[in-house]
Write a structure and sequence with these properties.
The structure is a single chain. The model has no long low-confidence stretch (mean pLDDT about 95). The longest helix has 25 residues, at about 165-190. Helix 8 (about 145-155) runs antiparallel to helix 9 (about 165-190) and helix 11 runs parallel beside helix 12. The strands form two sheets. Strands 1, 2, 3, 4, 5, 6, 7, 8, 9 and 10 form a ten-stranded mixed sheet that branches. The chain has a two-stranded antiparallel ribbon with strand order 11-12. It has a single domain, classed as Glycosidases (TIM Barrel), CATH 3.20.20. By secondary structure, the chain is an alpha/beta fold. It has 13 helices and twelve strands. Strand 7 and strand 8 (about 255) form a beta hairpin. It is about 40% helix and about 15% strand. Pfam families: Glyco_hydro_1. One of its GO terms (biological process) is carbohydrate metabolic process. This is Glycoside hydrolase family 1 protein. Belongs to the glycosyl hydrolase 1 family. Keywords: Glycosidase, Hydrolase.
Length: about 375
């Protein structure tokens, strides 16, 4: 499968009943890309680019604006969205939670609250019961480890709680939420394929002669799996998000721009390191599960690095396939420029450029090059 990915809060527009929209510390998505209005146009563009799959998320705060009160108009909208995908021959990969929480849950301490597991499961049951005929692939929780890092360890995202104990509470509930959601989905829709998208970076020692740097890099690679190991029996496939490598040093911590030129970095300062996707998959081969790359992309306003980035990652994915790893799909992040969380609208990840004033869409040259691979199902260099 070949496609691209988006998430509701980052592209839909008009979402004002969630923690990100209500928090005064954060930039707001506002109109975003007005994908809520223009979804059919956007899917037509994806189809024109040869894609046959599409990853999207549902906005929990739209579907359950008040605790226990489900919005059937919002449900009808997402039914229409999924029908539009099928009409364009795009296989939906549906994410049930992508970072934002309904405001009514956020004020109850969000994922720290043990009741959050029951709340999430109730939401999942409602959604899957009503959309099961339109969706084969479900993704429960997007990058929960990234959410914990940015919400509780750094913290630069809601709920802005710098507390290891709070992070542990949220982690425990997120693990339970995935496991119980998996069982609910399987009960309602036994044929469904269910997974949990996890963000994997590759970690290398800054000083290859330093045993401490080596140890820190190994520890960081182990920590990559904090949501994989406890959930390995509740996954039908591996959903892997990969962007970059980080260099590890006892003196400077986790960085990714040591002595690198601009050509080696994205607009956000992330190292372009395609081999990492191969190294990660070799480590995960022991799970003996099919693999979908559910996110892989870069911020590149000039669009000069995007196709080489995609091409080189696909070359390494081919190497992984030759080593016996069952890679079945690839989703570029993102279909279109969007609201990039704390970084606002500046980063340009999209295959499609958005004019945020007029909401016009412009297909970038790199998208047409990726389209050749999508259409031919082979890498044309």
């Amino acid at each position: 499968m070949w496609g691209a990915a988006i998430s509701a809060y980052q592209v839909e527009g008009g979402i004002d009943n969630c923690d990100w929209a209500r928090d005064e510390k954060m930039p707001k998505a506002g109109r975003a890309c007005e994908h809520y209005r223009f979804y059919d146009k956007d899917f037509a563009l994806a189809h024109s680019l040869g894609q046959n799959a599409h990853r999207l998320s549902l906005e929990w705060s739209r579907l359950e604006p008040e605790e226990g009160q489900f919005n059937h108009l919002a449900l009808e909208h997402y039914q229409q969205v999924l029908s539009a995908l099928h009409a364009r021959h795009l296989e939906p990969f549906v994410t049930l939670w992508h970072f934002t929480l309904p405001q009514w849950l956020a004020v109850q301490e969000g994922w720290q609250n043990p009741k959050s597991v029951d709340y999430f499961c109730s939401y999942v049951e409602f959604v899957v019961s009503n959309l099961k005929g339109r969706v084969k692939f479900w993704l429960t929780l997007n990058e929960p480890e990234v959410y914990l890092l940015n919400g509780y360890i750094k913290p630069k995202w809601p709920p802005f709680k710098k507390s290891l104990f709070s992070a542990w509470q949220a982690k425990r509930n997120l693990i339970k939420a995935h496991q119980q959601a998996y069982l609910i989905i399987k009960k309602i829709q036994p044929s469904a394929q269910v997974s949990l998208p996890i963000n994997f970076s590759w970690f290398s020692p800054r000083n290859k002669y330093s045993p401490i740097d080596w140890w820190m890099a190994r520890l960081a690679l182990w920590a990559n799996g904090i949501f994989l190991r406890p959930n390995k029996k509740c996954m039908d496939f591996l959903a892997i998000n990969y962007y970059t490598r980080r260099m590890v040093s006892i003196f400077t911590g986790f960085r990714n721009e040591f002595g690198m030129t601009n050509e080696q970095l994205t607009d956000m300062g992330w190292e372009i390191y395609p081999k990492g996707i191969y190294q990660i998959l070799r480590r995960l081969k022991k799970y003996h599960l099919p693999v979908y790359i559910t996110e892989n992309g870069l911020a590149d306003q000039s669009d000069k690095k995007r196709w080489p980035y995609i091409r080189d990652h696909l070359i390494w994915l081919h190497q992984a396939i030759e080593k016996g790893i069952d890679v079945r799909g690839y989703f570029y992040w993102s279909l279109m420029d969007n609201f990039e969380w704390a970084d606002g609208f500046d980063p340009c990840f999209g295959l499609i450029e958005i004019n945020y004033r007029t909401m016009e869409r412009f297909i970038r040259p790199s998208a047409w090059q990726y389209a050749k691979t999508c259409q031919s199902n082979q890498l044309l260099r």
